[in-house]
Amino acid sequence: MTEAIRTIIISLLTGLIVWVASRFYSKHFEIRPNIFFRLEENGGSSGLDSNHSFFKITWNNRFIIANNSKFTAYKIKFYIPYYEKIVHNFQEFRHTFHSNFLLEANSEKEFRLVTTNTERSADVFVMENNTRIRKKYSDTMNHFKPEELGNFKMLIEYENEKGKKFYTEFIDNSNHYSNRKKKKYKKYNA
To answer: What is the domain extent for residue 1?
Structure first.
């Protein structure tokens, strides 16, 4: 083999290696959307039913998802443990965050998350001769707040334009980023 052919082969192999490495880097590292999430309390309401037998409490939260990158995030999915206890406007949630939901670069989407809880009046009020005297708890809203809402956690799965999956885990009011899906969330596809 002549020196010229060897030089051509080495040049072609070097070019191929550089091309493969750049494609791999581009898919797995360079084009990475960055999904950020926050849950903010936004008031609520409470009141008795018409028979004064039950006390209904409603919590309103702002469910905000933001893409803090210059790349669009595609096929966004949410894995929320015990979502049936937290998301009581579930049909609206599914309509807003449908299976092909995407979030453009540097944008955000807000959703009003509604959670309700109904308690017997006797559990909320001190009663005397079937008459309400006073509330049993100074902060009824927090006392009856579902634990799952107070300790909200979620995994968000999303893809870049090349189909590479990324994950953001929201736990303890902070976001953690990963390239791997946490096994503990597999069964909680909202």
So the answer is: 1-30
Q: Do 24 and 50 belong to one domain?
A: no
Structure letter (DSSP) for residue 26: I
In a domain, 153, yes or no: yes
The answer for 173, left when phi > 0, alpha when psi is -120 to 50, beta otherwise, is left
**Nearest Cα to Cα of residue 119 among 87, 145, 88:** 145
User: pLDDT tens digits, residue range 97-150?
Assistant: 988 899 999 999 999 999 988 888 778 888 777 777 778 888 888 888 888 888
Q: Are residues 63 and 8 in the same domain?
A: no
Angle at 159 between CA 171 and CA 166, to 5 degrees: 40
Assessment of whether the complete model's pTM goes beyond 0.85? no
Helix (H, G, I), strand (E, B) or coil at 67: strand
DSSP conformation letters of 146-168: -HHHHT--EEEEEE-TT--EEEE
